[in-house]
From TrEMBL:
PROSITE patterns cross-referenced by the UniProt entry: 2FE2S_FER_1, 2FE2S_FER_2
Domain 2Fe-2S ferredoxin-type, first and last residues per copy: 1-77
Organism listed in the record: Cupriavidus lacunae
Protein name: (2Fe-2S)-binding protein
Keywords assigned: 2Fe-2S, Iron, Iron-sulfur, Metal-binding, Oxidoreductase
Top-level taxonomy: Bacteria, Pseudomonadati, Pseudomonadota, Betaproteobacteria, Burkholderiales
InterPro entries attached to this UniProt entry: 2Fe-2S-bd, 2Fe-2S-bd_dom_sf, 2Fe-2S_ferredoxin-like_sf, 2Fe-2S_ferredoxin-type, 2Fe2S_fd_BS, Beta-grasp_dom_sf, Diverse_Oxidoreductases
Domain of life: Bacteria
Amino acid sequence: MSISITVNGKRHLLAVPADTPLLYVLRNDIGLNGAKFGCGEAQCGACTVMVGKSATRACVFPVGAVGAQHVTTVEALGNGQRLHALQKAFLAEQAAQCGYCSSGMLMAAKALLDRIPDPDEATIRREMTGQKCRCGVHNRIVRAIRRAAQELRG
């Protein structure tokens, strides 16, 4: 079966079954390794990407369900020369230790800030509940999201 999806602004025509998890397509077929395989059961958030405007667990989301929506991965946020406000804030707040969860955290935070530009701490904690960090830097992550929100608002 041939499936066409747009990832980070680039169209891809793929010969994969429609029920293939989006994460596998991103990593194995397109070569984008930012989203990580954590649990494979949509419980940890390491695989979080945006499908349309929604934070989505790519490990269980079938590529055939993407449809006309655009997929955004952490690779689209920024690069070494130009970082997104969230990436800068994560660095400033030291909100990553091992870094395994970081791409999923960043994408979930981006989806949150796109919906709610000025979230309070309670909102951030509620909205980020499903994103797991085994290193335990959740407080730093909350501070980083608050910092990025402030920068994005100007």
